[in-house]
Amino acid sequence: MSEPIARRNLMVEYRLRATRCLNCGEMYFPPKYFCNNEGRQSKMLEVDHFYERGEFFSGSMINEPTNRFSHLNAFVSAIIVFNESKVRVPGRITDFTSTKDLDVKDLIGKGVIPRFRRIYSDGKDGLIYYSSHNFSLEDDYYPYQKYEPVKPSNTDGKPGIVGYGVYIPKFRIKNEEPALGVLERSLPFADEDTTTFAVEAGKRALIHAGTSNRDVRKCFVGSESSPYAVKPSMATVIQVLELGEKFDGGFFSGGIDSQFACKAATDLLIDAASLVSYPIFNGRDVMVIGSDNSQAAPRDRLDYSVGAGGVALIIGKDDVIATLDHYLPYTSDTPDFYRRDGEKYPKHGGRFTGQPAYFKHVVTSMKTLLKETGYTPSDIDYVVAHSPNVKFPSQAAEEAGFEKKQYEAGLIVRNVGNLYSGSSLAALGAILDIAKPSDRILLASYGSGSGSESYIFTVTDKIEEKRKRSIPVKEQIENPKREYVDYYTYRRWKEMN
Amino acid sequence: MKTKPVAAIIGAGRTRFGEHWEEDPKAMIGKAGMMAVESVDKGIRRKDIDACYFGSFLYQVTNKIGLIPGYMSRELGLNIPMINTEAACASGGLALYDSCIGIQSGKYDTVLVAGFEKMSDRQDKIIDDLMFAADPHEFESGYNFPGLYATMMTRYMYEYGNGDPKCEEALAQIASKNHHHCIKNKYAQFSSKGEVSVEAVMNSRVVANPIRILHCSPISDGAVALVLTRPEVAKKYTDTPIYIMSSQEATDHVSLYTRSNITGVMATRLAVRSALDDTGLTMDDIDIAEVHDCFTIEEVFFLEDSGFYKKGEAWKNIYESYESFKGSGHIPYVKKGKELTVNLGGGLKADGHPVGATGIRQAYESFKQLRKEAGENQIDRDVNTAMCHNVGGTGGVATAHILMRDIQ
Question: Whose CB among A124, A194, B196, B212 lies 3.0–4.6 Å from B204's, allowing a Cys bridge?
Answer without folding.
Answer: B212
